[in-house]
Amino acid sequence: MTPAVAAPQWRIGTDRRRAARTALAAGADALHLDYGGAHRGTPLGEPAALREAEAIAGDVPVPVLAVNHVNDLGLAEERGTANPAALALLERAQDCALRLGAGVLHVPGFRRSTPATAGLRAGTVEALRALCERAAPAGLALAYESPLGHRELLALARRVGHPALRLVLDTGNLRDAGEDPLAFAREVGAAGLLLPDLHVKDPAVGPAAPGAAFAELPALLARSAVRSVLVENDYRGARAARLPEDITLCRAAAHPTHSEDPR
Length: 263
Hints:
Layout: E1 4-8, H1 16-25, E2 30-34, H2 47-59, E3 64-66, H3 70-73, E4 76-77, E5 81-82, H4 84-100, E6 104-108, H5 118-135, E7 141-145, H6 150-160, E8 165-167, H7 171-176, H8 181-190, E9 197-200, H9 217-223, E10 228-231, H10 242-253
Parallel strand pairs: 1-2, 1-10, 2-3, 3-6, 6-7, 7-8, 9-10
Antiparallel strand pairs: 4-5
């Protein structure tokens, strides 16, 4: 089955309706929305914003709701407990995801949410377990990613120990962390924890040419059971023309003209 190609609203702009139009015009099959907050747009916890998002979901599928604002708050506290403010935010976001018909809540673990110490890792485990226990009865999956290496990330996920949890493969973030996306797909997939929605973007550091990330996508698709690919480069302002280009590259990668070695 050919994977769907999704666009990220937060990489297009904070105006969700305009981002949806842009994504559809560029040829995307789906749109991942951001919950909002701070400089990320109006939070979906506000009724008018949620009604607008529900209308958008009626025009284009919204399979994932991301909560990037949690990176500003911090998911965990150093003393080894979940951050109550972050948990409250994510619980509101879970409710919004269900209203939108999304099947996945994306919880990033970067900046203030990076589990860089033993205390923060313990608090992250506590937070993710609580969120999974709340999400699972509604059929909602919890997708988590962080700059941890895949072995540390697998260890953290096993400590959570909940079937609602999945780990995100993001090619750019993995390359920035010194990780091999194919190794991540192999190890995390073998553990049954790989989210079948891949994220593809160029790394933030290094000399990679624009679009280079898509060169490894055929091997990733051969390695994993993928239902969708999110193109996640920066499409704001003058960079908007790159969105249809990336979508085209993604579709081409799903139909390689020569066989790929998935090892």
